[in-house]
Amino acid sequence: MKKQILFKSFILLFVVVTVFGIRATPAMGAACSLSSVSISPTSGNAGDTVTVSGYVQACDNLRINNTSYGTTIGSFSKPQTLYNVPQNFTVSAYSYTDCSPSTLGSTVDDNGDPILLCGIATVSVTAAPLQPATVTVSNSCAGSTWSSSTGNTGGSGSSSFTVNPPSGGQTVSITRGSLPSGYVWNLISPSSSQTAFPGGSIGFSLSCRTIQICPALSASPNPYQCGGNTTLTWNDPCGEATSCSAGWTSSTAVSGSQVVTPSADPQTYSITCYGPNSSSGFASVSVPMAANSCTGASVNVYANPTSVSSGGNSTISWEGTNVSSCSPDWNWTSSTGASGSQLVTNILSTTSFPMSCISSVGGTNPSGSATVTVVPPNTPPVISISASPTSGTAGVVNPLITWSASGSPTSCTASGDWSGAKASSGSAYQGVLSSVKTYTYTLSCTNAYGTGTGSATVVVSAPRVDGVCSSAHWNCSAGTSSNNAGTGPWTWSCVGSGGGSTASCSESVGGFTYSLSNGGTVNVTRGSTVTSTVTRSAGTGTQAPVTLSFSVLPPDLAVQGFTYQSCTPTCASVFTFSADNTATLGAHTVTVVGSPESLNGPTSFTVNVLAETSPVVSCSPSSSSAMVGQPVTWSANVSGGTPPYTYVWSGTSIPTSPAPTHSTSNTTDTYTNTYTTTGLKHATVRVTDSASNFGDCTNGGYPGSDVQINFNPTFQEF
């Protein structure tokens, strides 16, 4: 009977153990104890990591504050993060069965089962005293001001102030303020932002310089041909102008070109360019008329229409060339201008309208006339058509065709070098003519009595090109070379075209050649400088000094200086470029030319402007708490820096070899982890941008972020 009762009791105990998960001590026969608990270091600051160490014997659970480390046997070392200072850490050891030397109390585990407290110890971290850091600002720019990210301000001279940084350091930034008129800031040395650490010191050096606005203005061709155009080209080689203004163009850009028609001999054009802080610069160019380019004075008189019915009206127009004034031979107009027009009414019979002018270039005073024919009734249309001008240069001339038809035509059709249906009267520009030929504009109009036809022509000639010698033998800067043989000394001609002159050229045996090259693309961060090298490589002949200059210098870059502006090949120059904090991000092309000109022409390279700020990173879990076995997704967000970015994750139960790493241009990234133990879990991420600047995740001033992992009854194994 007793054996049956014992057997049934054993069966009941087995069921209780199986159903309710009563656990056995992992080391049979040993009692749980806690000893040798310590912490290192014993002082620190919020955000630091400390290590809690000790020794346990056969304990079912070890806890440090609210974090559970499960079954622990032997020595342990657990890293902890300081969230405030001073901070205490309570270490507790538990057993389901036995304690050594004695039980300190009892509680229940996550399942509600009783568990014994076998040992408890408290270790503390105290606050380490932080020393202030000294910040010194030296400003050599008289009359200027500055301010700091810490709220301090100052002017010229040297001044100091202190900050109280945490152990991890504090970023201090200096912002340049007002300047005297006509000055611009140089870059802050060593940089506009530095990190101050407790007990340390940092320094900023500020300076300024006179703004250089040096506009350049040129004309081509210069001199201009009589009645022709010239192209004005302007830029700012110093690279500091922000806008330009001139009466002969509507553009306000710091570089550009404009076709103009000179009206005087010589004609002077000027431009003013403006820069920051009320700075400006002025340039002008004088453009004379080419000698012997005018054939003399002339006047063109024409009527529109040239035929009318009795009592009809016609407009008489005149255009004088190289004349100072014109007057009618009889009083059909009161105007005496060099050009003009007059509406004549009630023309009863065929009439001539003569005009005489006074030459402004000497020679014979010109005269001309236009005739208006009175057409009898019941006749086909009489066509009046004219072109202005009647001749010009290819690529320049844009003739105005003016026409009218008497006799009330029912239709008019254009042919020749224009086409389509036309009104019985009108005028239209034909666009710039590009071919060298005679353009013919024919108009045919029809009424009930027949068809009338009229034509106007425009003679287009090749542009005048004057021959210009090049510094290299057999070559021409303009025109066609007449010779390409011989070993020197060399003689050749540069033959002009379109009535242009021919230049006679020569070069002695002492001439030389060289080539230009550069070091390739360079990167510069906003608020800093970068260097680039341009090399002159010797070619043939006895080398002589070569001077470098910029033909293209983007306004987002400033030249701080360069070595050996003039040197004898083979030699190299090192250019130093700077980009201020407002420079446009991206690629900028710089072109350098040599004087005399190199064999391979100018050399160009790219300067990439990168962002000056490091990435600012925040991170957070998908939930502030989760259960064992449930996935937790950590999300990171980045602002600032220059993409693409590299994300490297680290923290509790996150692999380290290799660490989870993602490279992307996105400003967000995620990492998912599943935790198998309870407690507070920590994660952080470091983000590095393409300029090697980096930032670490912070939340509320603390590094990284945390999630509380709780016991999951559906996941726990028994």
Query: Would you tell me the structural class of the helices and strands?
Result: mainly beta
The CATH architecture assignment of one domain turns out to be Sandwich
Number of strands: 64
Shape: elongated
Mean pLDDT: 83
Question: Which CATH class of one domain is shown?
Answer: Mainly Beta
Strand content: over 45%
> Which fold name corresponds to the CATH topology of one domain?
Immunoglobulin-like
Low-confidence runs of at least 5 consecutive residues: 1-28
Query: How much helicity do the residues have?
Result: under 10%
Rg to the nearest angstrom? Answer: 46 Å
N- to C-terminal separation? 34 Å
Largest sheet: 6 strands, mixed
The helix tally amounts to: 1
